[in-house]
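Good morning C.,

I know you're traveling, so I'll keep this short. The sequence:
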Amino acid sequence: MHDFVHLTVHSEYSLVDGVVRVPALLEQVERMGMPAVALTDQSNVFAMVKFYRAAVARGIKPIIGADLWVGDSVEDRDPSRVTLLCADGSGFRNLSQLLTLAYTQGQWHGRAIILKQWLEPERLQGLIALSGGQFGEVGKALLSNKPDRAPQILEQWLSWFPGRYYLELHRVGRADENVHVGRAVNLASTCQIPVVATNDVRFISREDFEAHEARICIQQGRTLDDPTRPRDYTEDQYLKPSGEMAKLFADLPEALANSVEIAQRCSFQVVLGQPCLPDFQVPEGKGAAGHLRDQARTGLQKRGAGSMTDRTAGTDEYEARLEQELEVICDMGFEGYYLIVADFIGWARDNGIPVGPGRGSGAGSLVAYVLGITDLDPIEHDLLFERFLNPERVSMPDFDIDFCIEGRDRVIEYVAQRYGRDRVSQIITFGTMAARAVVRDVGRALGMPYGYVDRIAKLIPFEVGITLEKALADDEELRGVYEGEEDVKTLIDLARQLEGLARNAGTHAGGLVIAPEPLTEFIPLYCEADGGSLTQLDKDDVEAIGLVKFDFLGLKTLTIIDRALRSINRERRASDVAPILARDIPVNDPQTYDLLKSCRTTGVFQLESRGMRDLIRRLQPDCFDDLVAVLALFRPGPLQSGMVDDFIDRKHGKDSKPVQYFHPTLEPVLKGTYGVILYQEQVMQIANSIAGFSLSQADMMRRAMGKKEKKLMHYFLFLYFIFYFLSIAIH
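The tokens, ready to paste straight into the viewer:
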């Protein structure tokens, strides 16, 4: 049996013509015993990191590449095809630049085209080219009425890819395929160049062909039975085992062997987990760490000047906490990140753009507070720095930053100007075929009446994250029609094959990448014909390769507050009264809480739903901490667990629900929430005080609990017993 490696595979991330899911691809490759596989999505590397990680985890060599359209001009109505594979790092950087050019300068009716004028030898180093079979420029010439042009065209491609160009052969049952193979082999023999067999894979198994065709019809707006629709694919374009490929190309064993040779030539490795932070210009003679320390100490003095003495914590605690955080930040190499965030937030405030006070785990950083990144004192509110940066769990910092929705784009423009437009980009997201939508899509592809399909789709519960499998299990009516009507079964079974596939590319709500070098050194860019540039990797994959994501979130609430303050201050100025600043508004104003307790919260962000108003009515919040608790309680877990009732009853002193701490050391941790474990910080503090965990270890335990990671939970349980028995032995 000849060894063989698949070198052309389109996944679901080709968006138009693939139904291959990356996990299923690697599972099948492993089952077949193949040593390597390539992912060559159409004009993109959207799935590169997901594919690379999954392949490495299974001991399979991942080959990164892309299928490209090549034309003489942007308006080329009949571009040819070529597959480029990355032999090394220079190849990936060149592929990245070509893909970026295709989207930013070569788009034609949604198709990203590589112009021949860009194909220069220095731009193609480190890339191996497969000719594209009968769809490549050489292949088209061989099948034309002037096949004698093919050697001349081939010569041009060989000049671009000397020693790295292969004539690609397909045997998937297309028209003119045998003619192309015969002529291509003769040309290869005459010109002494290699051939390679591929299967132009679009799906995993032959049984997936109908689902693939349904996807094509959905994308084209056609029906499966339309006699006029193009039949560009065959049922043989599945991930064939080596044995089947050996039989297909028994007359051309070198074409199979060359697939393995190409795989061996491709050594590009995706570097993961190495932060690539952008540079922040600091005063001459100072490093970023020294500058951050100076800025933080100055900020602590400014923050403490008027109010530090009024706090329960003394200045010594603040100074000790500040030094501790600075040590961790600088040791982890994130000083530049803090300086960058502080810079653009400071610019926003200086230019009258409202900025949120801070939220998420970043609010636990005192350094962030004294730099003006947040307006929440983490010591006053008992917030933990280790939730944000944990030296025992190296991960990228991530401040969630809210801007007035009307000013957000101005801040992004400032960042682009400061760091370079070629180094700044928004982040891509991918919409998926969700349960209801995919049923409707498949119904149209099957040519079913709209009303009929709509009736079936409406039986699927309208829930976040609902799947067809869960809907069939939970909804008796849907399950009944599925089991009783053959057309419904056909519809839903086909929809299940497509459910969850990537449907389209979009823009992340707030994510922005700032790179230390032009972004094409790291990843290619994508854009719609009339849109701005986006990274070709989603937020998780961007961070995986070390690029730093900054969240620029547009919050309408800040806009409304800003408008209200402007209106109020116009009247105050007219009356010769000093204007009000948002940060000066007291958080414990009794009249405000009277309004809240009366449930007059319509139009109040996060407090206006019917369920929230009911919770407010029962809780009767009368301080800022109560408001924090309300937001924490109004989640499925607390609402379904009885925590809400316990919290309310204990707050109002009902004897039937006395406050219990179970251990004296827990009282300072749980007193503010009446013995109810409400916040993740409390989980960490309990692990710290009871089990002897460091706060860093406690944070890792918290994350394991949140993600239900059983192995880690068992590890921490083991640690707990070790600490417990040691404490007994000591005492």
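Safe travels,
E.
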